[in-house]
Design a protein that fits this description.
By secondary structure, the chain is of the alpha/beta class. The protein has helices at about 35-40, 60-70, 85-90, 100-105, 120-125, 145-165, 185-190, 230-235, 245-275, 305-310, 335-345, 355-360, 425-430, 450-465, and strands at about 10-15, 45, 50, 55, 110-115, 130, 170-180, 280-285, 315, 325, 330, 370-375, 380-390, 390-400, 405-410. The protein is globular.
């Protein structure tokens, strides 16, 4: 079949709750993802990709609004934590008409979407010409497994070939995994030594389950500020348990889900290749956010450590140099303007993100110097993060002022954001990690006070820039 058009096609693949550290291109030596490895070998891997955050416990809701519109956190119609006046002042009406599918539809693209149901931007999702949404988190090949999402894309491509369609296409391929409930297939559960029917806190024969992450803790040193948070208290197979067997089993289930997703991506790549479309198609792979799954004593994504704030990001496609690695300093919300740039489509004025086409093409290393992150789905003002160079600041102001903490990390020396609690003999024995002296929170160390002040000032500037409606206890009196 001839190429549908001289204009490129797009397949935007987004996982649900997947941290970068689950992939071999980010250093994982256990979880097998040969098809994503192939994409990475053909294109560009980003080491500095982040979601901007969330003002709701369903972190994916805010994230997917930003993906669909290219707008920043406080400028999308997710009202939680904001006054009606704030939303109206910073979010244009009828925004769905300038969302991903609507823009590509107007440009003559054939648009298709398959993804989970709920926790998303429904008005924007409805703009796709073909919509096949269903939450699919079962294990073996069933009508409600990751296989189903892959099958919807293949059927869409089969129909295009049958009708000899000439318009270029945009496919939004969203998975429901590795979000819990992490039901793995029988075969892959065996591969990763895990059990779907694991009872939280029980001990099983987990000799072949993945080891504990180096940043595992039996509990977080202080409360995260979100009372009765579902991801920290009610994940099936985990609940409030953070013991070694429970965490290792859940990681095994997570890896089983990810490898099964990778198999579906491989099916789609093979179909595109058989149709003669692969070489004219940009393929994006990412996740709506990362997640902890035992790191720092946490289970969910409602935090701003690197494992949860950062996302995997891989792009392959026409003219991109194979096997390239880039820092980028991109947000997920930059995806839409970048795709429009690659397609030669003018972005509407509602789009606030930055195109990182220049990074993809090796013309520059990053698109911004500073990255801002927020989480205030629980008690307000919540958490904020600021990353600048190799330095990172996280602040907590929750539970009506009962928890007020500041963390400062030098990521070049402490990439896992280890705390003093990770130096405890019991933790070292269980994780096998031997932290260096500087691998801890540096916020109270005298020699880092100048750096702390600099980072605090940068954070305040970013909060103002992005119309963050909150201020922390030590920002009172600041505009």
């Amino acid at each position: 079949m001839a190429l549908a058009s001289e204009r490129p096609n797009f397949v935007f693949i987004i996982a649900d709750d997947q941290a970068p550290g689950t992939l071999s291109v980010y250093g994982n030596t256990l979880c097998q993802t040969p098809h994503l490895d192939r994409l990475a070998a053909r294109g560009v891997v980003f080491d500095g990709a982040y979601h901007m955050g969330a003002n709701t416990g369903a972190v994916c809701t805010a994230s997917r609004h930003m993906v669909m519109t290219g707008r920043t956190l406080w400028h999308v119609p997710v009202a939680n934590g904001r006054t009606t006046e704030h939303v109206q002042a910073h979010c244009p009406p009828m925004l769905e008409q300038n969302s991903m599918a609507a823009i590509f539809n107007r440009a003559g693209y054939d648009t298709m979407r398959t993804c989970k149901e709920g926790n998303s931007y429904s008005a924007a999702n409805e703009q796709f010409t073909t919509v096949r949404d269903q939450t699919s988190r079962m294990g073996d090949e069933t009508a409600k497994s990751s296989h189903w999402h892959g099958q919807q894309v293949i059927e869409f491509l089969d129909q295009r070939e049958k009708s000899a369609a000439k318009d270029p296409f945009l496919i939004y391929m969203g998975f429901s995994h590795p979000h819990d409930e992490r039901n793995g297939t029988t075969k892959l559960l065996k591969t990763y030594g895990a059990y779907n029917d694991f009872e939280p806190g029980e001990s099983k024969a987990l000799a072949t389950a993945p080891p504990l992450p180096v940043s595992w803790l039996p509990e977080h040193p202080f409360h995260h500020g979100h009372i009765e948070l579902r991801d920290e208290e009610r994940v099936p197979g985990v609940l409030k348990h953070r013991d070694t067997d429970t965490v290792r089993n859940e990681i095994g289930r997570e890896y089983a889900c990810i490898e099964y997703m990778d198999e579906q991506i491989g099916r789609v790549l093979a179909r595109l290749e058989a149709m003669g479309e692969l070489e004219n198609t940009y393929i994006f792979f990412t996740s709506d956010h990362g997640i902890a799954v035992g790191k720092h004593g946490l289970m969910g994504k409602q935090n701003l450590y690197e494992h949860s704030w950062r996302v995997p990001y891989i792009v392959s496609g026409p003219s991109l140099k194979a096997g390239t690695r880039a820092k980028g300093n991109i947000y997920l919300l930059d995806s839409l303007p970048t795709m429009l740039d690659l397609a030669g489509i003018k972005a509407p004025s509602t789009v606030e993100g930055l195109s990182f086409r220049g990074v993809l093409e090796g013309k520059k290393p990053i698109v911004r110097e500073t990255l801002y992150g927020a989480y205030c789905g629980g008690t307000k003002p919540g958490m904020r993060a600021l990353k600048h160079g190799d330095w990172k600041l996280i602040k907590y102001d929750v539970l009506d002022g009962k928890v007020r903490e500041t963390q400062l990390f030098h990521l070049a020396e402490n990439p896992d954001e280890l705390l003093i609690e990770h130096h405890a003999p019991a933790v070292v024995r269980l994780t096998g990690n031997q932290p260096l002296a500087q691998q801890k929170n540096l916020a109270k160390e005298p020699e880092y006070q100048a750096k702390l002040t600099e980072m605090e000032e940068l954070l305040h500037a970013e909060m103002k820039k992005h119309d963050d409606p909150y201020r922390f206890w030590d920002q009172k009196g600041l505009e």
